[in-house]
Amino acid sequence: MDVENNRKPVVEGGCDVQRPILIIALGWLAGIAANSFYSFSWGWSAAGLLITGATGGIWFYLRRKGLFLCLFFSSLLAGMTQMAWVDQRNVSHIPTPSTKKPVFAKLTGEVAEPPKVDGDRGTLMVQVSRLHIQGTNKPVFVPGERVPLSIRLMSPEDQERLDRLRRGIRLGVEAELYRPDPARNPGGFDDRRYLYQLGIHWRGTVSSIKDISILEVPPPSWDDVMDVLRLRLGSTLDAVYPAETAGLMRGMLLGERWEVPWTVEADFIRLGLVHLLAISGLHVGVFAGCLYFVLTRVGVTREKTALIIIFALPFYAVLTGAGAPVIRSVIMASLALTAVILRRWKDTLSFWGAALWGMLCWNPYQAFQPGFQLSFVVTLALLVGVGPVSRCLPFSMPGVNQLLAVPLVAQAASFPLLVYHFHEISLLSWFLNLWVVPAVSLLVIPLGLAALGLGLIHPALGWLPAGISHFLLKGILFVTSAVGKWKGPQLHSAPPSLGWMVAYGAILVYIAVSLAKRVPRSGVHRWISLILLSVWILGLWIPFPGRKELQITFLDVGQGDSAVIETPSGQVILIDGGGSLSFGEESWERRRKPREVGEDVVVPFLKARGIQRIDWLVMTHGDADHIGGLKAVAEQLPVSRVIRNPHPTRTSLERELMDRLRRSGSTVFTAPLGIRWTLEPGVSWQFLHPGPLQHGRLDQTNNDSVVFLLTAYGYRVMMTGDIEEKGEKTMLRHWDLPAVDVLKVAHHGSATSTSEGWLDAIRPRMAVVSVGRNNRFGHPAPEVIRRLRDRDITVLRTDRNGAVTVRMQPGKIAVESMLP
Amino acid sequence: MFLVSELWDKWFRSPEECRVCGSPLGGGVFAGEPHRVCNGCLERLEPICGGICRRCGRPMRTAGVCRDCLRRSRRELDVNRACFRYTSFTRDCIHFLKYRGQETLARPFGSFLAAAVEEWKWRGDLVTYVPLHPEKYRERGFNQAELLAREMGRRLWIPVRSLLIRVRSTSPQSRRNRSERIRELQGSFALSDLGKRLLRTNRRILVVDDVYTTGTTLNECAKVLKDGGASRVDSVTVAR
């Protein structure tokens, strides 16, 4: 007689789907992600979609339930289908005799984007419609494939000539086409993948602007109007603002990131403030907010104001370069304004879903771009998390709590993505964001917009708002440049695994649930979840215990030397840092971000390996191609000890570097000859050259390169610097050398090193040549390669194989390279 | 325009409404159930805070035991706790839940009960509720105490079981005085089959009801449960 017990109480929700758009968008995203793991042809996915959709539809029709799952899985399969379809069609139409070698071709096509001039290099995106490959008889027609061209500029006149090109102009270009590079170093930038996702498969270099000829100039179009307007706005900002902050304002208001000085951008990246430089949802919000405020004040009705803003927003988006965050926030803001017009409630979560879905449908590759990911993840976290978090903060004013909660939630949500993509995080980031973001969004940007608007009428009018915002920006820059130099709060980390990130997301959801008091004993759960989160984050930096593996990475630094040894207990030895010979440049030639091996290769590698400090820095000798890149290393990481040869410093480069190292507290030694020195159980090293007194001529330091033999678990590695035959002979006289497993070939494979006698004495199994592609010295010398081949030694070259990694474990040695 | 609005409502969700007064809430997407009642209503419900009677949960100026509890000699119910004062507004809310069949009110009130129990740090084995006579149940279609108990149990992760049945129909309590109530109610509850099976010794049980006025009903339930073998019987109510 248990009548009451059989009856379930009424529970709302149940089967009806409350936010269908959100579910579809998330399913779609999951489908795109799934396709990159398990890729089927689009036909299979489409068949799956039909079956799932039909089954789910019938089930829902009959049983009135399961709509949620049906929607989710149908859109998942739809996402997979779309991704597979887009992937299949994303191929180059340029026929290639060989993909390895560059191709010379005459291209005909239209300018697709306004050219950019950066010092002695210009870039130009051309939509190629016809090309004639050298050595073939017939030109080939291509259905509009975009090819970015890099043009060598010889003079300021060349810069002006390039600047005059605008969208739509038909060009004939003689260019050398080559495939973009995949990542050549671990943690390096994968240009091939990046461009592939933009539908680009070739790059071109043009040796002189004379190789570009204008075929046809079309009448101006709408795109040109935008370009001209952007130029006009840019020059207005240049006129209104002092040179110090003009570039920064152009970046912040118009999205011209390339106008922002590189030093400022580097500091902002390090401190986690870089989202301020990219036009983001914040900017769109401020823009729309200012417009709304002004229009409603003037006396326009709310509905009309909303309508005006809806039409103004796409214009603003196109003007600022239509980045992913801008489009996202324009879609969301337009939906919210439509709600105002229709007098409906705003459902921001569904708006978020609508933006996600729409943008993925437009271009699914966007899902892999850091800007897109960060924008959507942070927005979602703010929508969901700020309420519960701010309610738990202890201050009596809700406004203060919210102000604190916003950066807290944004940091927590962006953390895994930042670590994954940039391998670096600043402990000061939260604190800086706390006051820089309100200062920029509430003061600098509105004032900048006012200065821009007034400046369009006459530059003098914009003086006051420009003056105030300039003053504020200078303050911010003063702090960021001072704080950006500190090494302490910068944490580096290897990119976390996908599983780690998924679990991190789950922990965040757990925290949100316990903060919203949706579980019993939420107080206990709150503590558990916070402890779990900190343990999980700390887990990134705590090494896996008991793993015995020593890893040596010979980096591809172009023409130069750089190798990193990481011992099992986490000690780091850096041997040289590459470097390019720099020439005196005139001011017009200077690039925004000069190419610098230390900054571009060595430091990113160290960060991507989660290396926090250098325990031993071995400077084999003072040539620029060995120590040039160490400046960047010394700036960004602490160096405990430096080992160098006994030569006095020779160049100003070397002097500056040594000064910087000494000032930041490194101890400098000369190589301690002969002592066999245990670094940790199983790993030891022994310096073989040079002795403290035996150095030769002061301007010829190659022969006094520091040479050492590293022994790990019975395997031996010979590191040679730039030692030449004379030095090799000296060593052979002094030491009875054992057979080695890996030899770093001296002096990039020059014919004056690696003599027969040397090879016969140390009998390496494997040789690594650290050398640049197409270097002007002709390294490595063919006879050296022949000497190695004759002895059946495996040769790995950084110019062909990219970075080479050697891993040593007790009883096992393994080699891998970035490129096959 | 009308069509667009219609479509809009189909695809987008309107915000949560206050479960009591129906005004829209700004509370954000992830607000918990207690936040689904607007601040105005929450204020008018007058949550009990500060000094209460240790036994019956009546709000008092200082903590202690109230006069009614001191006077009562035979007391089977151990402790009662309540969420709100029994004001006219609270009474109206309970009437909506009870007679007008506004079952959605059970969710926020259930969660308020859960919060009260959590704050009280009650530890026990089972939750049950004051039953309705089957006839009345058929008439009303639901038992408000059961709805509250189920909602609360779901939030606290404590099992809710129907341990009691009403063997005699009684006329409404509210029109009688204290001694009449006691007489009327004697012997009107009994253990259900499930109750007989589940009640072994050392069970600690929490009884849920909507209002605690004199405590007679709950005391009667406690008596039956203790006779059946429960070691401790407490209760929680929406209003006191």
UniProtKB/TrEMBL annotation, chain A:
NCBIfam families: ComEC_N-term, ComEC_Rec2
A GO biological process held by the record: establishment of competence for transformation
Subcellular location: Cell membrane
Species the sequence originates in: Marinithermofilum abyssi
Principal cellular location given in the protein's record: membrane
Domain Metallo-beta-lactamase as annotated: residue spans: 559-773
Membrane topology: Multi-pass membrane protein
Source organism superkingdom: Bacteria
Keyword flag Cell membrane: yes
Record keyword Cytoplasm present: no
Transmembrane stretches, start-end: 21-38, 44-62, 67-86, 273-295, 302-319, 371-390, 402-422, 434-457, 464-486, 498-515, 527-544
Protein name (database record): DNA internalization-related competence protein ComEC/Rec2
Keywords, alphabetical: Cell membrane, Membrane, Transmembrane, Transmembrane helix
InterPro entries xref list: ComA-like_MBL, ComEC_N, Competence_ComEC/Rec2, Competence_DNA_uptake, DUF4131, Metallo-B-lactamas, RibonucZ/Hydroxyglut_hydro
Pfam families noted in UniProt: Competence (PF03772), DUF4131 (PF13567), Lactamase_B (PF00753)
One GO CC annotation: plasma membrane
Automatic annotation (TrEMBL), chain B:
Coiled-coil annotated residue ranges, if any: none
Domain Double zinc ribbon positions: 15-70
SUPFAM superfamilies for the chain: PRTase-like
Pfam families membership: DZR_2, Pribosyltran
Signal peptide (from-to): none
All residue ranges annotated as the Phosphoribosyltransferase domain in the record: 148-239
Database matches in InterPro entries: ComF/GntX_DNA_util-trans, DZR_2, PRTase-like, PRTase_dom
PANTHER family to which the protein is assigned, alphabetical: DNA UTILIZATION PROTEIN YHGH
Sequence similarity: Belongs to the ComF/GntX family.
Protein name: Amidophosphoribosyltransferase
Originating organism: Marinithermofilum abyssi
